Amino acid sequence: MSTFPKNAWYVAATPDEIDEKPLGRTICNEKIVFWRPEAGKVAALEDFCPHRGAALSLGYVCEGNLVCGYHGLQMGCEGKTVAMPGQRVQGFPKIRAYPVVEKYGFIWVWPGEPALADTAKIHHLEWAESPDWAYGGGLYHIHCDYRLMVDNLMDLTHETYVHTTSIGQKEIDETPVSTKADGDHVVTSRFMDNVMPPPFWRANLRGNGLPDDQPVDRWQVCHFHPPSHIMIEVGVALAGRGGYNAEPKDKVYSIVVDFLTPETDTSMWYFWGMARNFNVKDKALTAQIKEGQAKVFAEDTAVLEAQQRNLLQWPQRKLLLLNIDAGGVQSRKVIDRWIAAEQPAKLMA
Amino acid sequence: MSTFPKNAWYVAATPDEIDEKPLGRTICNEKIVFWRPEAGKVAALEDFCPHRGAALSLGYVCEGNLVCGYHGLQMGCEGKTVAMPGQRVQGFPKIRAYPVVEKYGFIWVWPGEPALADTAKIHHLEWAESPDWAYGGGLYHIHCDYRLMVDNLMDLTHETYVHTTSIGQKEIDETPVSTKADGDHVVTSRFMDNVMPPPFWRANLRGNGLPDDQPVDRWQVCHFHPPSHIMIEVGVALAGRGGYNAEPKDKVYSIVVDFLTPETDTSMWYFWGMARNFNVKDKALTAQIKEGQAKVFAEDTAVLEAQQRNLLQWPQRKLLLLNIDAGGVQSRKVIDRWIAAEQPAKLMA
Amino acid sequence: MSTFPKNAWYVAATPDEIDEKPLGRTICNEKIVFWRPEAGKVAALEDFCPHRGAALSLGYVCEGNLVCGYHGLQMGCEGKTVAMPGQRVQGFPKIRAYPVVEKYGFIWVWPGEPALADTAKIHHLEWAESPDWAYGGGLYHIHCDYRLMVDNLMDLTHETYVHTTSIGQKEIDETPVSTKADGDHVVTSRFMDNVMPPPFWRANLRGNGLPDDQPVDRWQVCHFHPPSHIMIEVGVALAGRGGYNAEPKDKVYSIVVDFLTPETDTSMWYFWGMARNFNVKDKALTAQIKEGQAKVFAEDTAVLEAQQRNLLQWPQRKLLLLNIDAGGVQSRKVIDRWIAAEQPAKLMA
């Protein structure tokens, strides 16, 4: 049984990663080379030269083709060999091409059946296009099943314990969450009224010109969209001003952006970031938030990798499903449905 | 077939390793977290949170409980969850607790059947409790079956070749050993009369105010006790003063302390040290002896790890059993008896 | 099916590698220790002490014997234990001895059936013995099947792409190769007339006092001899002076020396070097050529290791065989014949 759907758009890279040289990256167990046939375009092929099996990602781009760095075979975007010095290439076998698109500031790849790829299925990301928002983020490679990260992000109770010095606070624990699923969209919410803001939020309050020493209303609204994209609305408003619905001038509001891309069954690419709709021109603030988030998210890495090792050692062991786990449980149900939908139909008896 | 008995006390750690934070360590293939519920007490549990499989060793201790660093589940010493924020924990499955005790300056764990654990089975270590003795030691992690180290220590012929510049001397080779087994206690002895002391012993003679340029009588008496504890009486006396039985003023006498703890079938924790009953207040001497021993014992590591690789590559190959190997052979027989005693009884035909 | 013949002479080491200490090295999946029983002699044995399996390569040589660094067992050249302190060794099992010889500035080993080893089978290397030649070279350890390197060297088209800044030039691509097999000897040739010399050859022209800014005739004649020795005649002559057959004063001519020795099925020892017959006393030139070649040949390493990873991931995938691959294809046929000849005869139906 697969651990991930393949008929889905995954974030494969950030645009700067393939600006000049090709990029070799494994996504959903597929070894893929990403490259730019021309400025602003992107192509994705199997990272395997049909001639002798060399890694195309070690090659270079020339006049719109990907040139194999071993014997100069030239690949077109569609996986067809278009030229090779001294050779007729018509009969060369095609290699696999992957649907790929650059959108919202990311490179998206579809590792499954190409005929089903439709860029309209990439769900809309308002913050990525609107001038009212600023974004900063990074990439971590983590040795764990990406679903452990789904569990992690769809329940922020762990902030109290994993992120004690930044965003954790005891009131997170003490406030129950509510989870609901609407089709493939899973939402887990927690609202904490009249609490003191932890350090990360105090810094953000200051970043928006608000006092950092007063009680606030704090919220966390985690949205899961398949295959594994999690957007978390987070923020604090000065207490009693309407909380989540307070006026912009009374709050700081951000979206924690998490694109989880399986590399293999037990490793993943973690594209993390934060979008905010206050003080958006302040690049120093963007850099400062990114740096803070990088530290916070690195704390999860050690926990999840140790958890993965434990699960590999005790594969049969049953885990608990508590109310705080409902977000992960519901999200995994969506994932399982997507995986099941990809299986070949079975004959009825 | 197991390579080690599990119904036995093994040294798991030194007390300083778990003074503040929990310690995660694999012993006999069991992933265990060691922690202190209160000063002077120690507890050992499976390193697996029953909630989602996180490593408990990444957590911390709070008010006598081990707090999981992921979601704040609190574990008691017996492996029962005692609390978790916002949860009823009565129905949580217990995790395994291991008998554990602090004694003689070490943390001892019993990785097998808890009902059989009896601290009276830890054999008495006079040097660890008496003010007439001083002790210093360290810990090495070695990639070899712990039984290769049993072989190594129950025959010190190798000192001539492995430890040429410290404790080796040609007379070791030339002097036959005598091995006898008394129940589970195996003893291999070698007595060398009227030899010049090698560098390590010359330093010790000076450390006890004795001349280092005269012939000595030297002895090595290796004691094996199951599961894998080896105490080696070593020393030199000025020649002709009675050797092993000479007056304290005429000799230097130490006990080489070796607790061999299997980590996996092909790796081990090596708790090594030396106890001496001369000049016991001299801490600089203790440090100097420890430093010398650390270098000597590191020399064994390379030899044993290469031997382990060879044995893995040629698993069927027969080895020789010579008279110098008798100590290891007899000790392994005791180990095999202990392992066999743990096997479920077979039905008679 | 084996990937290499064992009844063959392979280069195992350069003489300086075993001048003082023994050398442990795996050749064709055999763990071997090489050592010198006396100056100018070399012996090769299984790297496995018959006593307890210690690695003999960790030992030392004493009075013509290899002394095990664990318990002092002494091995003779033929794999018989000749002495051990306090032991009668007559009954000790022999370990395997490998035919080994020092010739042409290399240590050659025969990992197969000793009775078939005949040093006359080492093919003659004129450049290694004649004072008219100078030689410099090095050793790389590469994680790939040695046959990928055979492919690489028996077709130099890759120079255009892999070695763009040193020996590559577009005319290589544009000039067809000719391949012929004469028994076990495979030759692939390419002659390029009236081309500008690339940087590596410009430096060599200067090294021989010739102008470096004029057109040259360039040649590459690759000779494969089993099991996996490839000598490549390379050179350039001032254009129109006879090319390959030009007078020595009008050309620079070298032999690229490649001894490919399998370590395992997917790793190899690469003994590379260059012999030249011009300006042979100039040691600075020898060093300079070696340094340049080291850089060039390191470029192949990354390509071949990535290719090996790809082939391991897609083992069933068919590769193309183009005309440029003929040299590798023909050479592999010879290798396959040699491997087949070693298989036990099958009964006829």
TrEMBL record, chains A, B, C:
Residues 9-109 form the Rieske domain. Keywords: 2Fe-2S, Dioxygenase, Iron, Iron-sulfur, Metal-binding, Oxidoreductase. InterPro entries: Cholesterol_7-desaturase, Rieske_2Fe-2S, Rieske_2Fe-2S_sf, VanA_C_cat. CDD domains: RHO_alpha_C_DMO-like (cd08878). It holds the Pfam family VanA_C. GO terms for molecular function: 2 iron, 2 sulfur cluster binding; dioxygenase activity; metal ion binding. PANTHER family: 3-KETOSTEROID-9-ALPHA-MONOOXYGENASE, OXYGENASE COMPONENT, IRON-SULFUR DOMAIN CONTAINING PROTEIN. This is Aromatic ring-hydroxylating dioxygenase subunit alpha. It comes from Ramlibacter albus.
